[in-house]
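Lecture notes, unit on protein representations.

Consider one protein chain, 207 amino acids long.
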Amino acid sequence: MIVDDHRLLRKGIARLLDLEPGMTVVAEAGHGEEAVEQFRRHKPDVTLMDLELPRMDGVEAITVIRREYPNARVIALTMYQGDEDIHRAVQAGAVAYLLKDTVPETLVQVIHDVHAGRRVFPPEILAAITRRAGQPELTSREVQVLELLAEGRRTKEIAATLGVTSDTANAHIKNIYSKFAVHGRGAVVSEAIRRGFIRRERSSDPV
């Protein structure tokens, strides 16, 4: 099964795989909810899953699928390579992680490897997993604060949005600085984008 919100990309991958001996694309999906529905219906041997999807993102879709079908083999196929993106996908149950600029021959081989029960993570992905393992965890509240920082919100605005005091909001901001080992809103937003906590298109110039 191929899950991606770009129809042209789905069709291109489907055409590639249908030409491979022994491979047949049994289903496609354009968003996370459809991916779960199609998996329940077709139970594919291998699923290619984008992470940035409408309605339900890829990580959540992987989580739901793996909860219902623990032996599901899901390959994350995405353009995102931040440490947090990779960490979340692996935690959800992805057994391989590939970038969309992967050459077709490699994609085909990884599908074979995953179908055979192997986990496949290229060296740069393994390096990211190792880096992420050594990083302090952000709390769910700190992630919320980080997202608001990326929107350019001031401390008082963050406090009002979250229903906390300015001192509490400022404490969360300082904790994020400490965990990211950077100082200043511009630096922390840049680091959050690099790690994959937030998407570049969601960020704005910090105030």
